[in-house]
Amino acid sequence: MSEWVDEEECAKEEIEEQEKKEKLKQVDTSNTGYIVVAKVAGPLADRSLGKEKDKVVESAAVSLGTKYSKGQLECLLRQFNWNLNDMLMELKETGGKGMDVSEMKNTEPKRARCVGHIASKKHDEKAIRKFKKTAIYKLVFALMEKGDSDMSIIRACRGTKFPSSSAMKAIQLIRSEIVQGLDLKSSAPCAKTSGICQVSQGAMLACGHFRCSAHWDHLLSSKIKDGTECLVAKCNTLVCTKNHNHSWKEGCFCEERVPREVFCKTVSSPDLLKKYEQLALKNFKDHSRASGLVKCPNLQCGYWWKRQTKTTIDTIFCNCETAFCFLCGLRDHDPLPCDNAKDWQSRSQEDVQTKIWRELNTATCPNEKCGVTIERYITNDDHCLHMVCSQCKYHWCWACRRRFKVGGTDANHDSYYKCRYYQSGSVGKDVEKRERILQESQMYKFYHNREEECEEDINQLKQLSQQLRDEVSKAPDLEFLNDAVKMLITATERKKILNPVAFYSACDAKKTLFEFQLKLMEKQYDYLLTILTKPKATPSEQRAHQKQIQLQLSMEAQKRPQRRHSGLIGLAKTILRSKEAKTPPPAKPNALLKLKLSKSKPVMRSVDQYRENKEKIIEATKSISDFFHKLFKMVREGKLVTILKGPDPENKEWYCRKCQRRNTFGKGVCECAWTDTKTSK
Fold it and tell me: Which CA distances in Å does 303 have to 32, 45, 459?
């Protein structure tokens, strides 16, 4: 007899397996295709990263064969910022021509002449004494005492109508005397044999130029002391035979790179060799993303990740709970492209904001004979367009940059506060540029404020997560609350990413659908939050409450009569009176706002209510997870929104999800907040 099988149980098991697969697809935190290379910053991490660097060099050696040594391959990889694919493509197209590293020679000579050796001509002492009395010798000697280089000395001699050959002769003579005076002939292996010595006593580059170990040690040690110049150290042997000013651009000096093997063989100081290894490793770390390595952007984390296999997932979820992009190294910005994410981050820098402020608040005088830069300070009560140049006394309009005249037969403006040219659109290019920058700055400020609101929501939800964690530790049957709060935090982080997406979105037919989906997202988000907390703690109501408080304070400030000396003097008087009365001074409007907003924190419901709403919470958690998965998938595929490289100039309005009204970006608060404030009164 065949065993009896319960079909309902089998169906339930299949459904559960499908749900598990869908969850893995929605949030893939397993980091498939990535492995951890280093965990803690320090010597162990440097050792493991050094091994990865050697692996990249070995893979390049396998691709190119025995044409180059490992040190030469390392020099080549530095030229291409450790991008092996770019290096191989360049070598394939050019055949190695134009590279700073040439192919190795199969056989090396047993003996060679050291290019650093300076021969002293003792046989012609009378000619040397006669040459020392010349003006060029004295000039070269004075310039060498100052510390000038050979090229600067040759240029100075040519400027005084001396031939370059005489200048080079004087330089060689002075150097030979310095060498003899310091008694360095015995320390260099090439000095005893008139510059010719065994190749084993030094190192020969692929270009054929040889130096003894003493000259290499002196040259490379100075390069290591200078810093990162040792990584691009070159042969620097004069190869030009023409009588002219020798320069690097004309190719007068040999540009063969000095590989690692020469450093390890000739540098005598172990401390300098250690410093060279550290500089080489630092260069690899700075450009490690091209070779498949990336560090977690969290400064307190020391994890290094490596892309092991080809994968379409570019987001890495580090063990420190930091999600970041592998391609650009920034925090997780999926589905926003990396170029847009970098541009969005650069807009918050002080230099960019200062440049925007200058474009909006300064202008040059329209008078062609003047051209002085004028700053205009705009307050909330003063919007006068009449400007007078302080230098040439030229009257002009701030809006259209034309001559300003009100009243009379030659009047071209009807009022000090309105401009007919600006309203009709007949303005110059500088005014159009200013309007475009103003629109972009208002648009960026609006979405940046929304991003900061999401950050505040995340901090509040983390507080709620800590409270719920304490309750779950006492009652294990409430484990579903942790999953719900984690999903809320993840949803808030994804809401934060959607703000720059909306900033770079095109103003087309897809925009209305995108805004409608965002409205549905807010509904599901607030619904889950109202089940977990008391109704007053929802972020949307908190933000509406903030706007109402701000509007109330602004209305009270407008109604308040302005007094004379109501600045620092009045504030000082109130502080002195409060000290006498032993009471705190009255708070400013910003302080009142913070005081009122500090009371609106997430408040837990009772444990019995959580148990009653268990099915609702689980269902709402699943629905919001599915919704965000579908929403981000549609954004990635371009079905829901068209992401441009920059903000769309036609995008001039934002959509209020509460009253379904459109407002300009200059208005950060919708009119529905005003009506709520009036009705509350």
Answer: 16, 9, 25
Q: Please count the residues of the chain.
A: 681
- How many CA within 13 A on the CB side of residue 13? 6
Q: CA angle 601-605-608, nearest 5°?
A: 170
The token pair at 408 is 């009379």
**What does the alpha-carbon distance between residue 501 and residue 192 come to, in Å, rounded to a whole number?**
73
d(CA 343, CA 367): 36
Distances from the Cα of 322 to the Cα of 315, 331, 490, angstroms = 10, 8, 12
How far is it, in rounded angstroms, from Cα 257 to Cα 272?
19
Type of residue found at 65: G
Crossing angle of the two packed helices 479-503 and 510-532, in degrees rounded to 10: 150
Q: What is the dihedral of CA 500, 502, 506, 512, to 10 degrees?
A: 170
Q: Which pLDDT belongs to residue 181?
A: 40
User: Hey, what amino acid is at 254?
Assistant: C
Cis peptide before 589 (omega within 30 of 0): no
Which whole-number Å values give the CA distances from 532 to 201, 418, 522, 610, 619, in the listed order?
79, 53, 15, 7, 13
Residue 536's CB is within 10 A of a number of other CB atoms, namely: 14
| pLDDT score for 381 | 43
Closest of 154, 157, 158, 153 to residue 143, by C-alpha: 153
Element at 574 (helix H, strand E): helix 568-581
Report the C-alpha gap between 52 and 281 in whole angstroms. 10
Tokens at 367, concatenated: 């008078």
Q: Residue 93 has what pLDDT?
A: 80
Query: Cα(284)–Cα(608) distance, rounded to whole angstroms?
Result: 57
Residue 118 near residue 175 (C-beta atoms within 8 A): yes
CA dist., res. 681 & res. 669, Å (int): 19
Give pTM, 2 decimals: 0.65
256, 104 Cβ separation under 8 angstroms: no
3-state secondary structure of 325: strand
Low-confidence ranges of the chain (pLDDT < 50): 1-5, 21-28, 120-123, 179-186, 379-381, 537, 560-599, 677-681
Neighbours of 279 (CB within 10 A): 16
Q: Distance (Å, rounded) from C-alpha 510 to C-alpha 319?
A: 37
Give residue for tokens 């999903």: 487
Distance from C-alpha of 179 to C-alpha of 173, rounded to nearest angstrom: 10
pLDDT digit string (tens) for 1-45?
A: 344 445 566 565 665 655 554 444 444 456 777 888 877 777 778
Residue-wise DSSP of 361-424: HEEE-S-TTT--EEE----SS----EEE-TTT--EEETTT-SB--BSSTT--BS-SS--HHHHH
Beta strand 293-295 pairing with 210-212: unpaired
Q: Cβ(288)–Cβ(82) under 8 Å?
A: yes
- DSSP 8-class letter at 30: S
| Torsion angles phi and psi, residue 321, rounded to 5 | 65, 30
Q: How is the chain split among helix, strand and coil, in percent rounded to 5?
A: 55, 10, 35
Helices and strands, number each (H, E), in the chain: 23, 15
Other C-beta atoms closer than 10 Å to the C-beta of 637 total 9
The rounded distance, in Å, linking the Cα atoms of 401 and 544 is 40
Please classify residue 545 by burial: count the beta carbons closer than 10 Å to its beta carbon, then call 0-12 exposed, 13-18 middle and 19+ buried.
middle
Q: Quick one: residue 171, left, alpha or beta (phi over 0 = left, psi -120 to 50 = alpha)?
A: alpha
440's CB contacts (< 8 A; 6+ apart) are 647
Contacts of 165 (CB under 8 A, 6+ apart): 243
Q: Which residue has the tokens 């040999």?
A: 254
